[in-house]
Amino acid sequence: MIAQADSSDAFVRWDWIWGHLDLIWEKVVEHLVLTGIALGVGLAMSLVLSGIVLRWRRTYAPITWATGIAYSIPSLALFAFLVPITGFTILTAQIGLVSYTLLILIRNIVAGIDGVDPAVREAAVGMGYSRRRLFFRIELPLALPVIIAGLRIAGVTTIGLVTVTALIGQGGVGFFILRGLNRFFSTEIVLGTLLSVILAVSLDLALLGAERVLTPWSRRQGDAS
Amino acid sequence: MIRLDRVSKTFPGQATPAVGDLSFEVAEGEVVVLVGPSGCGKTTTLKMINRLVEATAGTIEVAGTDITSVEAPALRQGIGYVIQRIGLFPHRTIAENIGTVPGLLGWDKNRTATRVDELIDLVGLEREMKQRYPAELSGGQQQRVGVARALAADPPVLLMDEPFGAVDPIVRSRLQDELLDLQRRVNKTIVFVTHDIDEAIKLGDRVAILNVGGVLEQYASPAEILSTPANQFVEEFLGDDRSLKRLSLTPIASVRLERGPLVDATATRSDVEATMKEHNVDWVGIGAGSRLDGWVWGREVETTAGAAKAAPFSVRLSASQSLREALDSVVSSHTGVAVVFDGDDYLGMLSIEQITRHLIQ
Q1: Which residues, at least 6 apart from A167, have a Cβ–Cβ distance to it below 8 Å?
Q2: N or C, which end of chain B has less CB nearby within 10 Å?
Q3: Residues of A in contact with B104 (CB under 8 A)
Q4: Percent of chain A whose pLDDT exceeds 70
Q5: Rounded to an integer, what distance in angstroms lies between the CA atom of residue B336 and that of residue B289?
Q6: How high is the mean pLDDT of chain A?
Q7: What digits encode the pLDDT tens for the residues A121-159?
Q8: Mean per-residue pLDDT, A201-209
Q9: Per residue in B170-212, pLDDT tens?
Q10: Which residues in chain B are closer than 8 Å to A142, comparing Cβ atoms?
Q11: Residues of chain B neighbouring A222 (CB-CB closer than 8 A)
């Protein structure tokens, strides 16, 4: 695509972009805040729900069933449902965004902790770890690679979903896509889409980097002498 | 140090107890090995001592304290625990792994670091390994770290659940020797579980032979179990090579050595023939006092023993080696004897008759 600064019907008008950098920055920040809140709250809720699952195994089926239903509701329909109750608010947006992270995160947390070597658990308990200490000091750190893998999927999904919340007055860079569609202004559509993709890729790479920093031990497997 | 009094364990949903009415005591500084076929409750018994399994009846005391009177985590922090699959924490370095219990007990950093260095030396690891992760170590090294970790807070009692079951026989034998050597220095009260009777005999001051359902068939020193098995179960469990096992427990020093058919270098052919006849052999050793230079076939002596071509004794044993090693030397030598030295000094020799006589006694 070749930009032609002075043509009003060019596919991408660079002059418009240069003229709206402040607005673009504001929407990018908003996008990140919405994503951050969704992932943070989603992770916290998932940890609590996973804790319940790990303690009482029979809750696993109903919890995955309920979060699975939430995951399968089309986002558009969900927001349409919620608006009459919670209005055009950030709460409406977050109810949707958070509920989409739960299934992935709970599954990965439970799978990660189930994957901890039983011998490690036995040794820890045998040396006098309390249940709580075992969970936070041993099981959770060892499950981290699997949990972060889940967080990466949930993160990329959430970045994309945030654009949809533009419909209820939120939306981050989705604001440009929606307004571009309404005004038949291709520059804004392309801008919003590209920014969303860039944010998704950046978040994914950031989480990958975080995993490498947090789990230095997992890269040194298998070179025993 | 450890006392089990009529202890039973019945797991939920099972009709017969895994361990029934078991009583025994372990003295301070003693190594007791629990051994038996699978299903004999040996691991269950071990785990009841640190309450990983709660006994359903009876009492267990460690150092005079009923173990149920202490919170389980606190009890366990005071008892070393080593398991077969080691269970090192993969996300922590070797130093951090060894410092686990000191960490739980709230030791300060310097004290823990000093202790970690001590333990690394004690179990024969390199200090440069401290910053590595468990996955970077071999199986034998990992088990040494496992033992170091169990000893970290210097607990008086050590529980070991088939700790050497997963390593190859050569490494296992070395780890067993290291454990015995370590025990001489740290003098812990150790309860050790294994299914390998040879390991039990090698390591135990006393061995408890358990039958299915946690029935104690015999509890005695290895030598006593081998020489007088309490019943047919014990006899069968010990296997057909019971005599050989007994030999492996007996040091050469406990048998009176003979000087053997020895002549000095100046002995004439007729001296040699007289000596051979006396000992009923067809060779003589050449030496005097604490020297033994070698041996010759009697028929090859023409003038004097010293003039014939003497062959050296290929295997020289020391008095601390076992009769089993002596027997091995006896059956693999031309002369049919095992020669025993203390450094360069000749002590004496052993024939198969002496070894057999020891077994029959």
Answers
A1: A76, A79, A178
A2: C
A3: 127-129, 133
A4: 93
A5: 22
A6: 90
A7: 999 999 999 998 999 999 999 999 999 999 999 999 999
A8: 96
A9: 889 989 999 999 999 999 999 999 999 999 999 999 999 999 9
A10: 89-91
A11: 135
Given a contact cutoff of 8 angstroms between Cβ atoms, the answer to whether A28 and A174 are in contact is no
Instruction: Say what the pTM is.
Output: 0.80
Sheet strands (E) in chain B? 2-9, 19-26, 31-35, 57-62, 65-66, 79-83, 157-161, 189-194, 206-211, 215-220, 262-263, 283-288, 291-297, 316-317, 337-342, 345-351
CB A162 within 8 A of CB A154: no
From residue A24, give the alpha-carbon distance in Å to each of A28, A191, B69, B216.
6, 9, 66, 80
- Per DSSP, B232 falls in state H
Q: Which of A90, A130, A105 is nearest to A39 (CA)?
A: A105
B94 within 8 A of A220, measured Cβ to Cβ: no
Rg (CA), chain B: 26
- A128 to chain B, closest Cα gap in Å: 4
* CB < 8 Å to A133, chain B: 104
Rounded distance between C-alpha atoms, residue A14 and residue A27, angstroms: 18
Q: Which amino acid makes up residue B353?
A: E
ipTM over 0.90: no
Interface test with A, best of B84, B89, B129, B145 (most A CBs within 10 A): B89
What is the rounded CA–CA span in Å between residue B175 and residue A37? 54
Residues of chain B short of pLDDT 70, as ranges, are none
Cα–Cα distance between A15 and A11 in angstroms, integer? 12
Residue in A128, A138, A224 closest to B73 by CB: A128
The CATH number of the structural domain formed by A21-214 is 1.10.3720.10
What is the C-alpha to C-alpha distance for residues B217 and B233, in angstroms, rounded to an integer?
Answer: 8
Q: Which residues lie below 8 Å from residue A145, measured CB to CB, with a gap of 6+?
A: A112, A211, A215, A218
> Strands B157-161, B57-62: parallel, antiparallel or unpaired by DSSP?
unpaired
Residues whose CB is less than 8 angstroms from the CB of residue A11 and which lie 6 or more positions away in sequence, other chains included: A1, A3, A186, A187, A190
Query: So where are chain A's domains?
Result: 21-214
Distance between B25 CA and the closest CA of chain A, angstroms: 22
B interface mutation test: which of A122, A125, A127 has the most B CBs within 10 A? A127
pLDDT, tens digit, 9 for 90 and up, residues B224-250: 999 899 999 999 999 888 888 889 888
Cβ contacts of B348-351, under 8 Å, gap ≥ 24: B348/B257, B348/B258, B348/B259, B348/B260, B349/B257, B349/B258, B349/B259, B349/B260, B349/B285, B350/B252, B350/B255, B350/B257, B350/B258, B350/B323, B350/B326, B351/B258, B351/B260
CB distance B75–A128 less than 8 Å?
Answer: yes
Q: Where in chain B is the domain with CATH 3.10.580.10?
A: 253-360
Q: Using CA atoms, how far apart are residues B285 and A206, in angstroms rounded to an integer?
A: 81
Q: Say which CATH topology domain B253-360 has.
A: CBS-domain (3.10.580)
CB proximity list for A84: less than 8 A, separation 6 or greater: none
CA distance B212 to chain A (A): 24
CA of B136 vs chain A CAs: smallest distance (Å) = 4
Q: Could you tell me the two tokens for A96? A: 């949707």
